[in-house]
Write a structure and sequence with these properties.
The chain has helices spanning 43-50, 53-57, 72-89, 98-105, 141-165; strands at residues 4-13, 15-24, 27-33, 60-66, 93-96, 110-113, 118-123, 126-131. It is an alpha/beta fold and 194 residues long. It has a domain at 4-98 and 152-169: ATPase, nucleotide binding domain (Nucleotidyltransferase, domain 5), CATH 3.30.420. It has a 5-stranded mixed beta sheet, with helices on both faces.
Length: 194
C-alpha cells in the first residue's frame, strides 16, 4: 500500500481537534494538528489549514471521527463534518471512541470537560464520566492534542487499512454511533419496560 493521507475530526472533548497524518505500510506517521481549536469556527477552516488548496483535499484517503462520549453539540458537529467530507471525497469513514483514545494517549490522571457539567476523567479507575467538580486535574486539549490524535489514528489503522486495501467492498459512509453522557437538555430518557 502506498502512502495515504488521513484526516481526523473530534469534537467530543470541549474543543475541536482536527489532525492530519500519513498511513505508510500500515503505520501512522507525520501527525499534525490544526491550530484552530474552537467549536465555533467549525471543522472546515481547520481542514483547509491542514489540506491547503483545492488539490489538497483530494489527497484525503480516509477520515477518522471521534465518537465520544462527549459534548452533544461537539459530537454532532464533528460527525456531520466528517461524514460530509468522507462522502464528498468518496473515502472511508472510521469512528473511534474518544475515551479509549484518551486512555491510550495519557499516562497520568487527567480530565477534559465534555460539557458544562461533566468531565471525561482518566485515572487509576479507568475512563469515566464524572461531575466536573469531582474530576482529576484538568488537561488542556492543545497540550495533549497531538498525543490524542496519534492514539486515535493508531486505533483506526486496522479498519482504515482494511478499507483501503479492499475498496471493492464499498465506501464506509454509515454514521458511527455517537456516545453522549446524558440525553440533550429538554429530552426525557426512554422509560424502561412495556
Amino acid at each position: 500500500m502506498k502512502s495515504a493521507h488521513l484526516l481526523l475530526i473530534d469534537g467530543s472533548l470541549g474543543e475541536l481537534l482536527v489532525a492530519r497524518a500519513e498511513l505508510v505500510s500500515g503505520s501512522v506517521t507525520n501527525v499534525r494538528c490544526s491550530s484552530v481549536l474552537t467549536q465555533q469556527s467549525g471543522a472546515l477552516p481547520a481542514v483547509a489549514e491542514l489540506f491547503p488548496g483545492v488539490g489538497g483535499r483530494g489527497e484525503i484517503a480516509g477520515v477518522v471521527v471521534g465518537c465520544g462520549p462527549g459534548s452533544y453539540t461537539g459530537l454532532r458537529s464533528a460527525a456531520g463534518s466528517a461524514l460530509g467530507i468522507a462522502r464528498a471525497c468518496r473515502v472511508p469513514l472510521i469512528g473511534i471512541g474518544s475515551a479509549e483514545a484518551l486512555r491510550t494517549a495519557s499516562s497520568s490522571p487527567l480530565s477534559l470537560p465534555i460539557g458544562a457539567r461533566e468531565s471525561l476523567a482518566v485515572d487509576a479507575q479507568g475512563v469515566r464520566i464524572v461531575p466536573a467538580a469531582d474530576a482529576p486535574p484538568r488537561a488542556v486539549l492543545s497540550e495533549i492534542g497531538l498525543s490524542l490524535a496519534e492514539a486515535m489514528f493508531r486505533l483506526a489503522t486496522p479498519a482504515l487499512c482494511e478499507a483501503l486495501v479492499h475498496p471493492e467492498r464499498g465506501e464506509v459512509h454509515a454514521t458511527p454511533p455517537l456516545l453522549y453522557p446524558a440525553p440533550p437538555r429538554g429530552i426525557k430518557p426512554p422509560q424502561g419496560g412495556a
